[in-house]
Amino acid sequence: VDIFQKVKYNEAYLNKYSPRPGTVAIKLGDPISWEEKKRREKILREILQKKYNSNE
Taking a C-beta distance cutoff of 8 angstroms, is the pair 19, 25 a contact? Predict the structure, then answer.
C-alpha cells in the first residue's frame, strides 16, 4: 500500500492470484484467504478512487 500511494498510479489492473493446475505457480499454493485478497483489493481501489476524485 505504501508504494502504491507513493507512485500515485493513474490506473492499475488488480487481479487476485489463484493457483492453476498445470502451472509452475501451483507449487506456491495459496496461503492468503479469498476474503483477505478482497480486503486488500478494496484498499487499493479506494486509493485509486481518491486520486481520481482529487484530479492529482
Answer: yes
Domain boundaries, the chain: 2-54
Cα separation, 14 vs 45, in Å, equals 8
Q: What is the pLDDT of residue 7?
A: 83
| Burial of residue 44 (number of CB atoms within 10 Å: 0-12, 13-18, 19+) | middle
Which parts of the chain sit beneath pLDDT 50? none
pTM of the entire structure? 0.70
Neighbouring residues of 20: CB distance < 8 A, sequence distance ≥ 6 = 26
